Amino acid sequence: MARYFTDEHEWIDVEGDTATVGITDYAQEQLGDIVFVELPDVGAMLEKGKDAAVVESVKAASDVYAPITGEVTEANDALEEDPALVNTSPEEEGWFFKLTIGDRDEMEGLMDLKAYKAFVDEL
Amino acid sequence: MKAPNKSGWKPSMQSDDGMQSGPATNSGNRALMLEEPLLFEIGNTDMTGVDLPEIDPSATTRMGGLERVDSIGLAGLSEPETVRHYTRLSRQNYAIDLGLFPLGSCTMKHNPRLNEKVARMPGFADVHPLQPVDTVRGALEVINELAHWLIDLTGMHGVAMSPKAGAHGELCGMLCIRAALEARGDARKVVLCPESAHGTNPATAAFAGYTTEDIPAGKDGRVDLEALKARLGPDIAAVMITNPNTCGLFERDMKAISDAVHAAGGFVYCDGANFNAIVGKVRPGDLGVDAMHINLHKTFSTPHGGGGPGSGPVVLSEALSPYGPLPYTARTKDGVVHLVEEEQADAFSEEHSDGKMQSFGRMTAFHGQMGMFTRALTYMLSHGADGLRQVAEDAVLNANYVLRSLEDLLHAPYADSGPCMHEALFGDKGFGDDLSTLDLAKGMIDEGYHPMTVYFPLVVHGAMLVEPTETESKTALDQFIASFRSVAQRANAGDASLKQAPYYAPRRRLDETQAARKPVLAYREQSPPAGKPTLSEQGGS
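ok -> structure tokens follow
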């Protein structure tokens, strides 16, 4: 399994033909207490870089973008009941959705952990 | 700076340590600081404040089986109980009549009492929108005169008076743009919104059926013109720009932006919520704007927030005017002001404006917020054109005074981008460990001020947006700045006591997270103390 990151602070785990997407620990830290998460419908076609989900905190509502193109196969319904999971376990239990991998070439340009850490340190 | 409180009394004198000193009171009140129960907790359901006649037992119902059979459980309060309840609550509120209201992007300015006097004149206050037109000529004259002032001040071609507030005005403007595009058979799909735009802009575009895309801000806090130009094309219906923007900066490239958008076949929507900074100084029409809403409840001093309804007329360019909503007022050559509605629209348009009017429909049932029209026109006439120019100058001067009085203590990200407009923007860089913008805002409540806008705009980390408006005197600003500096110093020094603020408000820090995650939106009866019957046991069902 390989984990990649975007400059919009999403993480993406790639396992076989499926990718799991969430927001990073840095992102949840910046947003503060998450109060609402809107997830994409299963079966929705997502396009790389376009809106995929919405995350709302006490400070702001933000879009979560699709890091790659693909079809949503599963959404983390637990977040609708308990959005705080994004704060307590952003990079594990607080995942947002899973999708098929439409085009592996789109992984190019995503960051690995080291590159993302360096990117965040610059902010 | 010394506080101007000559008597020397402070709420903090009740205690030295933040705890209540002196004996506890039986009522829970502290002299005139009253604890007020909820309306439902005051009265009984078997009481009523109204003396209704007995129902004739032989009367038959004509409700067709829809009559209510159960009590609805409302407490029956007498008039004095009701008046006292709301008056007591109002004492715990904060309002522009109580003090400086520095809410950025909101233009909380004084509501002149002359406005109120004029709005209460029977000829304006007692009219009804369904009255025969011949009996409301004066009211129509006011709408038409105000429309002309708005057109003159903005250098535009037409105005839609009926939208009820800012976002409603945005929708009206975007529907005009959509109607104009559809009229030329152009199905453009995308609306561009800069990062520094008001949050309502993309929401409006989406509501009008468009997809939205961001345009990044440059390092100086203004729209990145090159990035905007690069994105323009045959799919762009419009660009929505807030000018002055939410970083408190004037978009200097506005004309170049408009020219580029027009060259690409799109329209320019300008969010006029911040018009207070430029009224009488800049005419948006000269900058190529096609549609802009004006918040009468901001720039033109009609009550804002809970104080009264908003009003958001939309000025329109020549290209968009034909598509504006009905009804509208128009003066014909004989000097008479007409109210043009659906029945007369085609004939009137044929006769007086070359048949160009192709209205998209209505925004509201009637003409708009008449009560706000009289207030706004009163404000304009009492200031005059030169007075309105001074409004903008004083508002900008006040904001710059705040900016320069705090930039040594607080991170001011665009302090080097030149003077700010009507609002000063700060960030949380430099705060001590664990302290946030929220803590500083709560500290301002203890200082006796409504906090500034926080965490907006999003482009600045821990943003604090301060808009003093022209209402404030230098003395009032100096007091505010002294308080702001004191709390900012505590934040920078990592003063942990700020985490617990406010100490002196009617309630301590509220749990905003829980309120958002598990909102309680309806009254829930608490389990009563032993021996005390619940409301429903007292008489409800």
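The longest helix of chain B spans residues 370-406.
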